[in-house]
Amino acid sequence: MNKAADEERALLDKVLGSRVSIPPQLAIVQEIEKLLGKSNNPLSAISKLIEKDVGLSAAIFRLVNSPFYKSPVKIASIQQAITILGMTQLTSLSRGCPCVGP
Predict the structure, then answer these.
(1) What is the pTM of this model?
(2) How far is residue 73 CA from its own chain's centroid?
(3) Exposed / middle / buried, residue 35 (Cβ in 10 Å: 0-12, 13-18, 19+)
(4) Whole-angstrom Cα distance, residue 97 to residue 12?
(5) What's the distance, Cα to Cα, between the start and end of the chain in Å?
(6) Cα(85)–Cα(99) distance, rounded to whole angstroms?
(7) 96 pLDDT exceeds 80?
(8) Residue 11 scores a pLDDT above 60
């Protein structure tokens, strides 16, 4: 690699390694809570809500792509990510539980 590419990669690694935290949007979390309370858990509707929330989406991707889950491929879809995480973990994340996450 050339020097510019090395510097760009170092900057990207620094940004990705930072622990910048964007809190979830309250209105979206409340809607997710309503959906999670339903017995049929409409996964597609939950996914669409999460996709509107940058902070919650980032937290989900950070968790599901962490070494804890040992996925052989990078998870890039919210619906796939929440399927892997499960509803209990999703509920904890949406409520902002500090004990969840790598």
Answers:
(1) 0.67
(2) 16
(3) middle
(4) 27
(5) 31
(6) 15
(7) no
(8) no
Other residues' Cβ atoms within 10 Å of the Cβ of residue 50: 24
| DSSP string for residues in the chain | --HHHHHHHHHHHHHHHS----PPPHHHHHHHHHHHTSTT--HHHHHHHHHT-HHHHHHHHHHHTSTTT--SS----HHHHHHHH-HHHHHHHHTT-TTS--
Residue 81, token pair as written in the block: 């990510």
Per residue in 26-85, pLDDT tens?
788 888 888 888 878 788 899 999 999 888 888 888 888 888 888 889 999 999 998 998
Joined together, the tokens standing for residue 57 give 């989406």
Q: Which position has the token pair 């390694």?
A: 17
Query: Which residue bears the tokens 């919650």?
Result: 56
At 80 the pLDDT is 93
Q: Which amino acid is it at 95?
A: R
